[in-house]
Structure formats: structure tokens, C-alpha cells
Amino acid sequence: MTEGGRHAVPPPIARRDIVALTALRGAAAWWVVLYHVNELVPLTVPGRELLLHGSYAVDLFFVLSGFVIGLAYGQTFGSGVRAREYARFIGIRFARVYPLHLLTLALTITVPIAFAATGRPVDQFRFSFEGFVQSFFLLQNWGFQPRFVWNVPSWSISTELGFYLAFPVLVGALMRLGRGSAQLAIVGVALVGAIYLMGEATGGLTANTPRWGLVRCLSECMLGCWVWLSASRWAVTARGSVGLSAMAATLAGACALGAPAHATLPASFALLTWALALPGGVGRALEWRVLIWLGEVSFATYLCHYVIRDWVRMGLLGRVPDLVLLGLYIGFVLLASAALHAWVERPGRNWGRALVNRWTAPRGVAVTMDRGA
Prior knowledge:
With 373 residues, the chain is mainly alpha-helical. Helices cover 68% and strands 1% of the residues. β1 (2-3) and β2 (6-7) form a beta hairpin. The longest helix is centred in the last third of the chain and has 39 residues, at 322-360.
């Protein structure tokens, strides 16, 4: 379907808040949190094996990010890249992630200081000056480092910056390659196949992430863009969302039974995203106020939880019962997430967007901003 030379998105998914995906983002963030807390306090709970695979939640983030960015900006660059639109897009994306990244990076400085002050050994590699400079500019995970540095979760924000820079060109290429239904299906298979081959070459999705994280991010974000484009081209009913969910669950189950994650999870996450994005489908099961709130603050949760983990490890590990430590850690993360979202992330995003609009928007033209993208 085209409109004015560009591919038009039919009303079912056109520029609306998809709260089920917001809730899913919150669940993914806490999957990462519990994965990291399990390194401090082994969790003996039902589903513990699932928690041990929490590093794969980042792959879900990438697919979700690609879908949301495609939905918000795909048509803008479908017929070419113009300097003003590109500058505005990059400025808005930077405003979305950088204020909170900068603050959590600054908070992470307290960790090596506290280690040194209390006589604990400081990881000279993680807390190197070179790593700090690269983290400051969000370049730390572009293949320059053999290990994670400073605020560990920010590695994925670094790779998403690479995706933002390349997105206008990549989404245009995706829309050209996938002009017809058959071509679009082939592109989807090719993306899943490329991710599989990357996993085979590197030893798995999570293997050697400091070196290969950028490739992992680009390929999975583009898979998310493919889901957006496919959902906009192919009419799938609410009942069809059940079938998509069933396929996603089957692939996830295959992974749980021993199939390679790089052969199953990216496709599973793509199908799940598609299913939840359909109005009136299975996504209604996630439309709980608490889950939606966790999704709204999920970026703050993701970026702050590791520095809190460092402090909990220094101050509480071995001094309080494990159950108390776990409760305190979860409480600290929730409080920090709420505060950082309200006082840093949201004001920084709004201020940055206003500044970008002032610099790039033509006079007299009202600009509609994406919400939460």
C-alpha cells in the first residue's frame, strides 16, 4: 500500500500507544534485573532456569526498539534521507537516552571510589579512563573493548546509538527490498538467517558481546523494523495474534529444550512483538496498570540497576539474610527507577526535544513528537 510514493501504515497500528509493548518492555527490564541479582543471591524460585537466561532480554529490547522506531519514523525516511529530518531524528533519539545515561555513568564513578576507600580491589579494566571516555560518548561497545566497562548495561545503549545513526538508510533499504509480499517475506527470512549465522560464528548471541554487540543490535533492530513493515502490509486479525503468540511460544520452548538461542529467540521475540502490537489481540492480557508503569520506567530501571547492585554487593552482601538483601535491592531499584524517570529521564527528554524542534523544525510548522519511542 502506498501513499504519495511512500508506504502507508494502515490504521490498526498507525502511530498509537501500544501499551502491551510498554508492559513487555518492563518485563524485559526486570528479567535483566533478576538475572543480575541472581549473581549475588541465587534465586530458588519457579522458573529459575528462565531467569538464568536474562541476558537474552536485551535481544527482546532490540526487536522492540526496531519496531517502535520503525512505527514512529519509518515513513519519514522511506523515500530518502533529508538533512533536516535526519538531524531532527538523531537529536530526538539522543535526547531520549543521553541525560539518563550521563547521570548513571556519573553515579557509577562512586563505585571505584568506594572500592578504593574501603580497601577493596578496583577492577582497573572496567573502570579505566579510556573506557570512561568511550562510555561518555556512547562508543564503548563498538568493538573497541574486549570487556564491559563502567555502567555495564549501557553497552546496549551504545549499540542502539549505532542503530539510530544508520536507521534512516537501513529502513529505506528495507522498504525498497520488501516492496512486494514475497520480497518482504524473503527479507524476513534473510534477517533471521543472518542472526543465526552471526550466532554460529561468535558462539551464541551473548558470546563476546563487547566485540559483536553492535552487529547483534543492528540485525535485531532491523528485525523489529521488519515486523513493523510486515504488520503494516499484511492484515492480521486479533485471532491471528493468538497464532503468532503460539509460534513465539513454540520457538521459546525449543530454546528451553536445548535448541540454540540464536536460532530461536530472535524469531520468537519478533513474533511476540507482532502479536502484542495487534489491537484487540493477546496484548490485552498485559494491559495492567502496574505492568504498564514498570514499562514506562523501564529505561531508568535498566540503566540504574547495576550501579545499585554494585553498592548492595559492597554494603549488604554477607551482612544481612539473603531474603532481606533481595527485598532491599528490589526496593532500591523501584524507588530509583521512579525518581530517575520523573526527575531526569522525562524532563531531559522533553527539554531535548524542544531544543531539537527549535533548531530543526521549519517556521510555522507544528511537529508531532513520538511518545516513548
